[in-house]
Amino acid sequence: MGDPNLTVPHTMPILVSDFDGTVYRGDGPVRFYARRVAANLPSERATSFLDTFERFLVEGVAAADAAADPAEAKALREAQDGWGLVQALAADLGLGDAVTQQAFLDSRIHMLDDACALEVVEPLVELFAELRGDVRIVLATNSPAEGLAPLLDRMGLADAFDEVVAGAGKPVGLRAWMAAALDGGRSASALFSLGDHYRNEIEPAVALGAATGYIDRFGRADGPATAAAARVEDLLPAVTSWALSQTADRAHAPI
Q1: Which CATH class name applies to 14-26+119-252?
Q2: 80: closest CA among 174, 214, 209?
Q3: Where in the chain are the domains?
Q4: What does pTM read for this prediction?
């Protein structure tokens, strides 16, 4: 696993991919997380909590329009994804970080179980395989290193990446990692960041002038991106176009 504070010197273009909601999708893990958090609430409050969570998965930020409680509406409008919504709702209800952190760790253990359905985005993984050798493929995730390797193995992704940066500390840590990867006068255009969380994966790259692909499942339209779509498959042409432009630039670069 990579250290978010270190980078290996190289000259290839860099494709940095998020993990949850990008390389794989499926709401099983985040539903498990929500249920674990809700278990700390009284029965009626837990039911309302989970109902709000489910509305968000279906409607995205539009679910806020039907929220009677102002705090709930605010959480729905500001949530970048289901994980973030659970954290915000839990905080509003007085549940501390210890509760949500333990629930998150429990969800990661659950993901190692075959009973937890996970859909690997095969077209994206196939594109990774096609690009490797010309593009450095990096997985960057806030998930801790512990348990990540067996999870990647379970999903058939153990050898899908040139580097894995666990505990990336997004967004600040990822931006620092990207800046270090581009150190030495490299153009920011040599990096492409792909993910479904604008603040964590897209904004750090935009700030550096790098290319980006934003998976906007929940209709947030949070800011500028090189390309945006509700599904990662619809961003693959943009990734391919970027990669081709980078390999062409390298072919014509002076030796």
Answers
A1: alpha beta
A2: 214
A3: 14-26+119-252, 28-111
A4: 0.88
